[in-house]
Amino acid sequence: MRTSKFPCRGLDYRLCLLTLVVFLLLFGTVSRLNVPDVSYAKVSKLQHYKYNPKREISKGKGYPPVLAYWILGTKGESNKMLRLLKAVYHPRNQYLLQLDDGSSESERVDLAVSVKSLEVFEEFGNVNVIGKTYAINRMGSSALSAPLHAAALLLKLNSDWDWFITLSASDYPLMTQDDILHAFSFLPTYVNFIHYTNETARNEQRDKNQIVVDQSLHYERSSPLFFAVESRETPDAFTTFRGSPWVILTRSFMEYCVKGWDNLPRKLLMFFSNVAYPLESYFHTVLCNSPEFQNTTVDNNLMYNLWDTDPSESQLLDMSHYDIMLETGAAFARPFGEGDLVLEKIDDLILNRSSNGLVQGEWCSNSEINDTTKVSEAEQEFCSLSGNIDAVKPGSFGIKLKNLLAEIVNNWKFRTSQCIGVVRST
After folding, report:
1. Which has more pLDDT, 222 or 97?
2. How far apart are the C-alpha atoms of 140 and 28, rounded to whole Å?
3. Kind of pairing, strands 210-214 and 225-231?
4. Phi and psi of 115, rounded to 5°?
5. pLDDT attached to residue 14
6. Which end of the chain lies in a sparser environment, N or C, as judged by fewer CB atoms within 10 Å?
7. Distance CA 27, CA 14 (A)
8. 297 - beta bridge partners?
9. What is the DSSP letter of 216?
10. Could you list the residue ranges that cross the membrane (predicted)?
């Protein structure tokens, strides 16, 4: 970390600092808009946004929802991202893969080529890779800019999805997509899953009044944050909140944040642009301060996160955590090391996924292959090219999750109490 005093001789310090922060945020935003982004069809440019579905997806009552996944990785994680993609793949969903600035151009091209080479992804046309990278500092506002950018791209590609799910290359599902889609089929599409946390010893060190500047907004490579010596006063126009950066948010809420027809998301984006770890606060604060979305939050992000119980952020999930993960009923867990044996156990006993293959679902039309415990990747691709993609068949984990979510909605059992009574200034 670097500490620096900003040269503002002859000027009001706060005015000078505010001017600098606004300039950097606007500069970073404009540079994001000029990034050629999405596609796997043109690997060299990865520019066009055209969405060309090969199969019609039915929507509405009686049909499963559509989930939009954003999967973020860094240098050396493309194989982990592909494994995760295959574990969470379903023809109904949308997928956007992104490697950050730590990766090389050849690594990003290889990822796009790998996606392009799988016949099932080509058949359904629902997997895209962000081609041109940009700097992301996990501590700074560039980390907040990334999911907002991803949501905007997914809305541009195809706005016919219901929930936005953020994952990293170190995450993995604890149930099949048939399970998750079945459980979410019974939910109203206004429910946001986001975990709020109380102030901990680690969080107390991150004073939200401490002013920081994320240089990664205007450099091609991730750079250290600048920490100002002075701090600012606590805001009184809104109440800030904090929690897990891993979220499952509705399309309507993401449109509210991205399109910003109300000034609240934009105002909070400006505030959190110079706060450390803004991704742990931005969505939480927008939800709780918005009358339109305040009562749509469930204090559960359906993610088992080992780091929630180990602030040192040093441990990885392994075989010793297997039973505990499943007992929680979470849909996802993190963080896993690459190639850990516990992933093979999840593939074998929960996902019924063969090595390097896709997870079998009801959308696979070949019942003989679908009932086989071990099939090759080629057989999985073959059975995926036809069949009813609107059909899902849950297992025991999906039924358990459906009952949990039904209890949440009917009784608002896990609705966060932190939002209650929050009134934003007009």
Report:
1. 97
2. 12
3. antiparallel
4. -65, -45
5. 55
6. C
7. 20
8. 192
9. G
10. none
- Residues 91 and 99: beta-carbon distance below 8 Å: no
Compute, in degrees rounded to 10, the torsion defined by CA atoms 282, 288, 289, 294: 130
User: Does 43 score more than 50 pLDDT?
Assistant: no
Q: What share of the chain is helix, strand, coil (3-state, %, to 5)?
A: 40, 15, 45
CA atoms of 256 and 266, how far apart (whole Å): 10
pLDDT of residue 310: 56
Residue pair 425/236 in contact by the 8 Å Cβ criterion: yes
Strands (E), 41-187: 67-73, 94-99, 127-129, 163-168, 172-173
In our burial notation (b when 16+ CB lie closer than 10 A, e otherwise), range 381-403 reads: bbbbbebebbebebeebbebbbe
Where do the H-state alpha helices sit in 358-395?
367-370, 377-384
What is the Cα–Cα distance from 343 to 346, expressed in whole angstroms?
A: 5
- Structural domains in the chain, CATH included, are 32-44+63-199+239-351+389-411 (3.90.550)
Q: What is d(CA 210, CA 300) in angstroms, rounded to the nearest whole number?
A: 28
State how far the Cα of 311 lies from the Cα of 200, in Å rounded to an integer.
9
Residue owning tokens 């293959």 = 357
Question: Among 34-38, 135-139, 165-169, 246-250, whose mean pLDDT is lowest?
Answer: 34-38
Residues forming beta bridges with residue 97, ordered by sequence position: 71, 129
State how far the Cα of 232 lies from the Cα of 305, in Å rounded to an integer: 32
Q: What is the pLDDT of residue 58?
A: 85
Query: What was the pLDDT predicted at 224?
Result: 87
67-73 and 163-168 beta bridge pairing: parallel
DSSP per position, 145-172: HHHHHHHHHHHHH----SEEEEEETT-E
CA dihedral (115, 117, 118, 119) positive or negative? positive
| Top mean-pLDDT range of 32-36, 208-212, 247-251, 387-391 | 247-251
Contact 178, 361 (CB under 8 A): yes
- Which positions ≥6 away from 126 have C-beta within 8 Å? 53, 91, 93, 94, 95
pLDDT tens-digit readout, 231-260: 888 889 999 999 999 999 999 999 999 998
- The residue ranking higher by pLDDT, 142 or 60, is 142
